[in-house]
Design brief:
The complex is a heterodimer. Chain A is mainly α. Chain A contains twelve helices and two strands, in the order H-E-E-H-H-H-H-H-H-H-H-H-H-H. By secondary structure, chain B is an all-alpha fold. Classes of the chains: A mainly alpha, B mainly alpha.
Amino acid sequence: MPFIQQARRHHYLFALCTVGPVFLLFLFIRIIPVIRTAILSFTDYSLMSRPQFTGLYNYLKLLTDENFRIALLNTSILAFTCVTVTLSLALLLSVLMASTERASGLYSLIYFIPVVIPWVPASVIWRWILDPKLGILNFLLSSVGLPGQSWLQHPHQNLIPVMIVAVWKTLGYYILVFFVGLRNIPPMYYDAAEIDGANARRRFFLITLPLMKPIVLFSVIMAIIHFFNIFTLAYSLSSSPQGSPSYETKVLVWEIYRNGFAFHKMGYASAQAVFLLIVVVVLILVQFRTIRYDT
Amino acid sequence: MAGKAKAARAATHALLALGSVLMVFPFVWMLFTSLKSPSEILQVPPTFFPRRIDPGNYQAVLSIQMFSRYILNSFIISAISVASVLLSSMVAGYTFAKFKFPLRNLLFTVILATAIMPFEVYMVSIYLTIRSLHLFDTYLGIAFPILIMSFGIFFIRQFALSVPDELLDAARIDGASEPWILLRVAVPLCVSPLLALAIFTFTDAWGFFIWPLVVINSKEMFTVDLGLNIFHRKFYVNHGPVAAGAVVAILPLLVVFAVLRRRFMEGIALTGIKA
């Protein structure tokens, strides 16, 4: 009996020494910060003095803040457009890729390269391609007779280049996810369908799509969250350098960043952060609900 | 019909090849631009391949613009993050998988729940924490948010579950201590997921931008992304050196990707499937 008790004590001691410190790290690096953000959202805090409790003032301000509304609109448009384009293309390309046997490895590698490139260099690259005077895109357009555009220099049209780059950079990741999912579909379904005389399109819509539904649904939610949190791309693609003005593409996180770190309105920025958190949580709950209905 | 199948295959490859070009061309174009002399860059119509390879852009960026220092900073920060994430994930993942203790499920669920919260949501709070700890402009302060990864713990736990209990019990009967078992039995068996996790963490850490932007005030501590961003903003018209800077910022990740690509893709694929 004492041996078992001692063994259990060692057991618990080990667990305490391993999970304990790790959980403490989580407490200080994730849990407490989130709670603190929620608390700060009800205050007015400018780093100069102590936080002042202001109740729902910050949240009411959100409703009338023009910048916030623009940012929310931009981010929503960006998220939903990019998710639709990226996932549709990814699905199409991964199916095409799966039909090539040996080349699929090489293709998935090539399509993944933009995913590996960090956001800032990617922005620099595309900024250079989109340069109105020297950029290769306008040159290619003019060589087929189309007029060159003044990319990134319209106050209201900057969203489009941002979306193009976002899709370019994320496509490879979802191609890989879908590709692995496709590989997991037992070939006997396709064999049976071929015996029954189904052509490629019917096979796609009646076998592939339904079996891919869980992965696609999961990817949709994850992609929406990913694009809702976009910041670095918008920041580097539209910050004004000298000699080449461009206009800000306001996204949600930019508003949090500006209010928190440029204006030092920590309380207001926290309210915006809580708003973002609520959006993400709602999306995750939606996903749980749809997956449950599915199975 | 054989003809139709062949045509379909050709069309498939054509489409995929076109997409491949679109994916890779931007980087290749930047690479060539970085190797051109400044006068060649300004040529209209532009040349594709550099007529003469000019290393001047790289010299400018690596020595004058301190990009070598920036690369070092990024490396150190990423290394700290990888070491910390691997250590915490291995140790906690193994324990969650193989040990029963009170509150185990609750703690694990809480840790997993933190994965949902995007960093931008609580970065204001972490900023205040770093401020009170006076950790601005330190490697620890910069790496602080990425010292842990809930997904890492989930990932290792998932893998550790498949380690046979008999192995662990046999070692215990032989009188081995729990730390010894962790180090000499569990870790060697988990090398594969640990490596995938390391690659994933390194890539994330290297591209981490918004936090260094906020927490670094002195130029010596800039990460490569930060340095490139400021350089790009101030010296946009120096297209050559800017291009070299971009290539230099990407190169370490591309090298890691090229060397470890199979692990990379496996790791990423696993994250997508564990739905």
